Amino acid sequence: MSSIEPRERWGSRSGFLFSAIGSAIGLGNIWRFPAVAYDNGGGAFLLPYLLALLTAGLPLLIMEYTVGRRYRASPPGAFRQLARPAEAIGWWQVGICFVIAAYYAVILAWSVRYIGFSVNQAWGDDPEGFFFGEFLKAPDKAGTFSSYVPGVTWPLIAVWLITIAILALGVRRGIEVANRIFIPLLVVFFLVLVVRALTLNGAGLGLDALFRPDWSALSSGSVWIAAYGQIFFSLSIGFGIMITYASYLGRRSDLSGSAMVAGFANSSFEILAGIGVFATLGFMAAQSGEPVSEVASSGIGLAFVAFPQIISSMPLGGLFGVMFFGSLVIAGLTSLVSIVQVQVAAVADRTGISRSNSVLLVGGLLMVVSVVAFSTDGGIHLLDAVDHFINQYGIALCALVAVVTVAWVLRRLPVLQADANETSAVRLGKWWIVCLGAITPLMLGWMMVDSLRAEFKENYAGMPGSFLAWAGWGVAGAVLVFGVLVALVPWKHHGDIGGRAPEAEPVEDELGGKI
């Protein structure tokens, strides 16, 4: 008799959907999408964005759901069952998730501190100087490290302890319950923020800047690359999360319908975030007398520099700040949990150890790496470099290799299509195979070529030959090497990795349907 724990199951279809949506909705939805849309044609950008969702995002999401449910394993085990050499892709994804989780938690720690800073607007009259200087103590020269920053270290440890606690409770009692609480709370918080932003003087200026269509932008290839890139990065596809989550589904679950609900929910939140962010930036532009183009920003600069400046100048700004940074924490935490779960599942499948031990091993190691690497005074510069290279040459490249392997090398799309169609309300036709066999790999390949061309023309952030540039390239290459090396070690067929285990009985959801 095997002592391996039976594979867990989601408690209901809605629990899986809440968790999938929670993984997809993260920091990028709030601070990346609005700027990408604004810089690439405004309202006109929604056309390539929608086409990217329909021709690449949803098809790839359905493929990952099908692979996860069919083989009931984490990415390494699932790809191994597709073909023995393909296991390396799964471990590559695990390595990518490890790197992302290590620095993603740091941004959540910053957001936690900024909830408190918002109450008394501790950044004063110089939010940028406060963030980089007084708070992060960042050195002027990138690539230098001299001391740890306690104001980052302690909240970072707290973020990791919360994440470990949620994961230790399991898929049903931990991840599912947490997302059932966090996702509705996030939606309520952000709806209140959007309503407040729309009442600000100048909100119309921001919305006009965001949604005014520039149809001429559609003739630019970079706009289409941006649309597909946003879809790939925002849906949590390409690095194993959805394969892992789908591995806990029952045999009768609706895959295509679930993918559409998760995909459109993610995109709807992105548009909602765009409205809230640009309405607020319109207020900032009206207050400063500058055009929206001068105050528009994205990423860390938007969240920790621009928004604090706005908070200081608006009525009830403290409350607005608490809700904004609270939204960042919630959105980021649901994504972080899903990223770490990939590694937890892979270690448990590979070694046969219990879930609790796998959580402690993975979570403890991640907490140490996160604190050591990113809570120093030079941590923000390292984070910026690693984030760029792991996204461009980790996630995107891994997604390209995965879809080419499944569609072109192994020719498994017809098998996966039949598997999904057995239980899905929306049946997959030839369009699905065409999208994954042609459109998705071509767009991912185009993105990769365009990114490399820009990289060789001018290295990221103008740092050729610097420590950070080498660190970025090194991390991106290391996760690939990690995937190949770990895949060479023989399995001992723990759990149901050696083959498809008998299906568990379907569980009833609260709507009476079965998964």
From TrEMBL:
Keywords: Membrane, Transmembrane, Transmembrane helix, Transport. The keyword Transport applies. CDD domains: SLC6sbd_u1 (cd10334). InterPro entries: Na/ntran_symport (IPR000175), SNS_sf (IPR037272). Its main location: membrane. SUPFAM superfamilies: SNF-like. It is a multi-pass membrane protein. GO terms for cellular component: membrane. This is Sodium-dependent transporter. It comes from Streptomyces coryli. The lineage of its organism: Bacteria, Bacillati, Actinomycetota, Actinomycetes, Kitasatosporales.
